[in-house]
Amino acid sequence: MPNSTKEIRRRIRSIKNIGQITKAMELVSAAKMRKAQASALASRPYATLSSELLSNLIARTNGYDHFEQSDLPAMPAWQAGKSLLGGISPVGRDGKPSRVLIILVSSDRGLAGAFNSNVVNKALGIVKDEGAKEVDFVTIGKKGSDALLRMKYTLVATFPAKDKNVSLLDAEPIAVMSMDDFLAGKYEKVFVVYTDFVSTLVQKPSMLQLLPFVKEHVTRNNEQKTEFLFEPDPKEILDVLINRAVKFAVYQALVEAAASEHSARMVAMRNANDAAGDLLDELSLSYNQARQAGITRELSEISAAKLAMEG
Amino acid sequence: MKFKIVTPERIMVETEADSLTLPTTMGEITVLPHHIPLVASLVAGEISYKHGGKSDFFAVSGGIIEVKKNNEVVVLADTAEFGHEIDVERAEAAKEAARKLMTEGARDQKTYAGAAAVFQKHLTRLKVAHKHRSHKGTKING
């Protein structure tokens, strides 16, 4: 507890300044959060519709098993689609993949509470669970890559975080890169680790298996099957659709992460504001006490001096 | 029939339509009410629809169209824009950049194909933007 009034005044001033900054950051994050939340919500109709169509198609084509092997060799694109669904290189003997790629979505800037450390910890947990011999990372956001580099993990690519106006174009290079590497047999599994936006107060670090494209992505509720006419044909449509679904999954992770980041930062800044308020109350109390003590002391000094002079 | 265009970023259009013309990989098709269920992939081009004597059109850069059996058409587009949303200057610049890459920079087939797709996309956007300017009177919304 500082005791000279001058020192207390200085502390009050600096806390007020910091409070102003956190207040401003809270307002900025709140505005960005609203936009990011809106775009996270806006992507959901597409998600529902495309997974509906995909499940329909997979049911219809039986995830490719439906076709004769003899159809395959002439169609590299179609084989690519099959592989995206099923995986090419079988998972190792002990059921553990040997090479895994993890796409980690973090932020470029800090001051967002535990946002970045939570998502990094989630990724490390997956590294442990999968028990893969080699793990490569692709990071989005500076904070994630800094943390992983400190722990000496291999980063194959890093992208800057995009915290506003995320578009499908931002997801495309990431998705294309992981699909290419996956199809080339470089990785047996590809995961996306990101922060799922639940509400302003709750964000959940989550993991999504991007490749092989698991069918859990696909809702299985619509049992009534429509006999569709496919142009050009079901295989090619399925390829196109899976390709898009992978890109879209990456996009959705980016959008959710952006909404979560701003929410987390807004909450962190609100906490900082509250703490600054508490601290100010406490300090002004002790400032007033110190001031009063000073006055009392001066008074008693004056009256003591007067007494001495009279005496 | 019901008709909607959904992109990852938004639901762009949700409306009734009497006829609908789309660019698919197999060529341009027109969908009328009670079309049989169809799934087709789209290429970059222009989607237009008519409803009660009025018409409107959009630029899309590719996607999937699904005609459902309950007289409902869903377009899952990668990107879709109204004519008035397109920034003509930037589209022109992007088109030129893609053309340059196609004629000079393409070292392999993949880059060339990529550049050609981008070129096609911006070409359509420009077409739709210009059409929008000359058609202002007949639009339904936007």
Automatic annotation (TrEMBL), chain A:
Name of the molecule in the record: ATP synthase gamma chain
Bilayer topology term: Peripheral membrane protein
Family label: Belongs to the ATPase gamma chain family.
Any one Gene Ontology BP term: proton motive force-driven plasma membrane ATP synthesis
Source organism (scientific name): Candidatus Doudnabacteria bacterium RIFCSPHIGHO2_01_FULL_41_86
PANTHER family: ATP SYNTHASE GAMMA CHAIN (PTHR11693), ATP SYNTHASE SUBUNIT GAMMA, MITOCHONDRIAL (PTHR11693:SF22)
Gene that produces this protein: atpG
One GO term describing the cellular component: plasma membrane
Described function: Produces ATP from ADP in the presence of a proton gradient across the membrane. The gamma chain is believed to be important in regulating ATPase activity and the flow of protons through the CF(0) complex.
InterPro entries (alphabetical): ATP_synth_F1_ATPase_gsu (IPR035968), ATP_synth_F1_gsu (IPR000131)
TrEMBL record, chain B:
Gene Ontology CC annotations of this record: endomembrane system; plasma membrane; proton-transporting ATP synthase complex
Sequence similarity: Belongs to the ATPase epsilon chain family.
Membrane-spanning intervals of the chain: none
MF-aspect GO terms: ATP binding; proton-transporting ATP synthase activity, rotational mechanism
Pfam families referenced in this protein's UniProt entry, alphabetically: ATP-synt_DE, ATP-synt_DE_N
Lineage: Bacteria, Candidatus Doudnaibacteriota
Function: Produces ATP from ADP in the presence of a proton gradient across the membrane.
Name this polypeptide is given: ATP synthase epsilon chain
Record's bilayer topology term: Peripheral membrane protein
Keywords, comma-separated and alphabetical: ATP synthesis, Cell membrane, CF(1), Hydrogen ion transport, Ion transport, Membrane, Transport
Originating gene: atpC
Stored HAMAP family: ATP_synth_epsil_bac (MF_00530)
Source domain of life: Bacteria
Gene3D superfamilies: F0F1 ATP synthase delta/epsilon subunit, N-terminal
Coiled coil: none
Cell location: Cell membrane; Endomembrane system
Keyword Cell membrane recorded: yes
Subunit-structure text: F-type ATPases have 2 components, CF(1) - the catalytic core - and CF(0) - the membrane proton channel. CF(1) has five subunits: alpha(3), beta(3), gamma(1), delta(1), epsilon(1). CF(0) has three main subunits: a, b and c.
Domain ATP synthase epsilon subunit C-terminal residue range list: 85-129
InterPro entries: ATP_synth_F1_dsu/esu, ATP_synth_F1_dsu/esu_N, ATP_synth_F1_esu_C, ATPsynth_dsu/esu_N
